[in-house]
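Before relying on records like the one below, remember that each one covers exactly one chain. Contacts with other chains, cofactors or solvent are not represented anywhere in the record.
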Amino acid sequence: MSPESAAPDPSTRPGAPEARAWILIRYIGQPLGEVIPLPPDGLDIGRSAECGLCLPEPEVSRRHARLEPVPGGATVSLRDLGSTNGLYVNGRRAEAEPGPVALHPGDVLRVGAHAFKLKRLDLLDRQYQQESGAHGTLDGLTGVGSRAAVLAQLEAHFELARRHQRPLAVILADLDGLEQINIGHGPEAGDRVIQAFGGHLARRLRVSDPVGRLGGEEFLAILPETSAALALNAAEDLRAALAGHPVDAGEGSVLHATCSLGVADLKPSDTSGGALLARADAALHRAKAEGRNRVAQAP
């Protein structure tokens, strides 16, 4: 028996949150099986860093397409944003005119070398899809990528950016004073701070930006098609988000946590993803040495 038939749809209760959500499942491309939530206000797809779903490949236009859920409906609107190579739905090219194309659950959208299956799932189905599709690739505490997964993605994005001479940046973040929080408030409070920062990473970066926890209080975010200036802005946004939102430590107490971040963008001298990460690490150490709760950029 499905969750839908076992109980009334929670979305029918007054004031209840939306129980069903549109998602894209990466059908062709890496990471295979990735679940990409479709925001209620829509999602831009393209090569540009400004797109919510960034596909940094030459055959993808800077602003390729836009998806928007139809309010109160059972479809998603797909609009071609003037792409060079067009869009394909279920293997057929979708015409840019006279207007948007209506997508239904199960339709497959292809953009460049990537394909995504559109599904509409209730919350239980969505959780299962995320857990089964990303088995072994998620950090158990925060839900962001695991160390192995994000480091593998770093090397893959490094090779892609270097081959096509495209921009790439990384953000290395470390929570300030977590050991003191664990000593003063207990390890559960420290875990709450780690979870809170993982939530900021998931909400404030693009869905196409791989994010992972390297261990302890250290996190890595990979930003394809992103200049140093845009990466600095993103890092500052993350810093301000954690500093500006006290963390509930339980039993009525709150913690004011901060983080330090190092930013590095791809240079011709970088010979591997590890070299890029090492420069971000040096910048992170400088941010710590200069007083913490700040962002530093690698030269």
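The CA atoms of residues 76 and 103 lie 5 Å apart.
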